[in-house]
Automatic annotation (TrEMBL):
Protein name, as recorded: Small ribosomal subunit protein uS4
Region (Disordered): 21-46
Organism: Swaminathania salitolerans
NCBIfam families registered for this protein in UniProt: PRK05327.1, rpsD_bact
Gene from which this protein is expressed: rpsD
GO biological process: ribosomal small subunit biogenesis; translation
Domain Small ribosomal subunit protein uS4 N-terminal: residue ranges: 3-93
Keywords (A to Z) from UniProt: Ribonucleoprotein, Ribosomal protein, RNA-binding, rRNA-binding
GO CC annotation, single: small ribosomal subunit
Function: One of the primary rRNA binding proteins, it binds directly to 16S rRNA where it nucleates assembly of the body of the 30S subunit.
SMART domains for this protein: Ribosomal_S4, S4
Length: 205
């Protein structure tokens, strides 16, 4: 697993958006970028910079995954039948750490990645500690028995910041959920506008 190199809130500042919709985000107070030049007048962005920003937002949202791994998702999305941008979202939403975040078993995607890698999760009864593991329709994801009373899990489950999307079922009393179906872009509860079509354009140059 690649090591995250920067604070998650620095990602927010750099992109100029509250990427995860959190009340703690510094963007809520300072919409300009970090550093001494953060408040300088912005020039009209080029097509390339708009596409790059769309890619950075999507990468950052899923725990700032590496460029190498993100490119693999794009290549797989192209290979599959159907709309490439929708396929890309489907692949990202099937990451086990993303599913744990959607189930509200972790407060952030970064916490979800750590939760999975520390061995707190089972898929269909078997322990899985690979955050990038892709779940399939019908897979049952559960917090291991010894981990169900962890404060971080209970706090995340009770958080009112997010709702669980319709393509996932969850029982917070048993700390168990099921991935039901393929999500479409319109199904995914992003706090900011995501434009996977621009990501496709970026890689198609």
């Amino acid at each position: 697993m690649s090591k995250r190199q920067e604070s998650k809130y620095k990602i927010n500042r750099r992109l100029g958006v509250n990427l995860w919709g959190r009340a703690k985000s510094p963007v809520n107070k300072r919409e300009y970028g970090p550093g001494q030049h953060g408040q300088r007048r912005k020039q009209k962005p080029s097509d390339f910079s708009i596409q790059l920003m769309a890619k950075q937002k999507l990468k950052g949202y899923y725990g700032n995954i590496s460029e190498k791994q993100f490119r693999k998702y794009y290549d797989e999305a192209v290979r599959r039948k159907g709309d490439t941008s929708e396929n890309l979202i489907d692949l990202l939403e099937r990451r086990l750490d993303a599913v744990i975040y959607r189930l509200k078993f972790a407060i952030t995607p970064f916490a979800a990645r750590q939760f999975v890698s520390h061995g707190h999760v089972t898929v269909n009864g078997r322990k899985v500690n690979i955050p990038s593991y892709l779940v399939r329709d019908g897979d049952v994801i559960e917090v291991r028995e010894k981990s169900k009373q962890l404060a971080v899990v209970l706090d995340a489950a009770q958080s009112a910041e997010r709702d669980v999307p319709e393509y996932i079922e969850v029982d917070h009393r048993q700390m168990k959920g099921k991935f039901i179906r393929t999500p479409r872009l319109s199904d995914v509860p992003y706090p900011v506008q995501m434009e996977p079509n621009l990501v496709v354009e970026f890689y198609s140059r």
